[in-house]
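Predict structure. Chain length: 292.
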Amino acid sequence: MRRSSVALAWALIAGLLVVAPARAQDPVLEIHRTEAGAHWDPRGTDLLFVLVIGSDVREGDPARGRADTLRLIALNPATMQGSTVGIPRDSYVNIPGRGMSKINASLQFGGPQLVVETVQALAGVPIHFWALVEFSRFRQLVDRLGGVTVNVPYPMNDRFSGANFPPGPHPMDGAGALAFARARYGMPGGDFGRSENHGRLLLDGLAKFRAETSGNPLRLMDWLNTFRDVVSTNVPPGELLRLSLLGRRMDPAAIRNVVLPGRPGTAGRESVVFLDPHAHTILASIRDDAVV
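Prediction complete.
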């Protein structure tokens, strides 16, 4: 059975806080600044674009798998609004240097850098930062942060992912959050609905971060200590602090959660998704002001 992981996008927003020291073991979450990020000023009003990549590797080097979860986060510091845009993993797109293929293959073809280049070409925006995670590391990070309460939108009973939840708010540990994020059978939208749930996880996690750290320096230190242990980043410390302050100011209610629409089809012998023209309208909207 084909499996996919969810990118811990909310950990990116909260995790842009500290530089992790050298460690003997692999980090739970990798955060990297791109060349475009080197020219982005967190003190200014330029739009910020972050790509979160979820590999389908169950345990091990996430760069060796497929990019089965892709979330493009767009934030507008001037208006304190933004969007989180899900890109269907089977989207049939041009991968630079490789030609037309499923977008999730870009990770196997050329690692995170090629995924960034592919999404930049598709969306027409500069990616300032990217984050990468796989199954086991996602579970670890959620557990280390004390779980997350997820607002389940409808009954879920997916025996493949293990998601079995009635609608409503549910406190989840790492395993539960991963099951929720992987579920796509017997639910609205199938794989498109799965991608929409990744955005829900992001926004529920951001709400947790803001609620626990606003006015509570001790809890903020708990988050900081966790990220010192588990997050690896090449983003400079001063920039990390300013990015974290931006994340704490963002109201989840001001961030739209959408998935690029498309239709299933075939290309050669592969099942793919052909993006709908409205998908390009969505991408044009975030290019303008980060808001769909």
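Summary: The longest strand covers residues 67-76.
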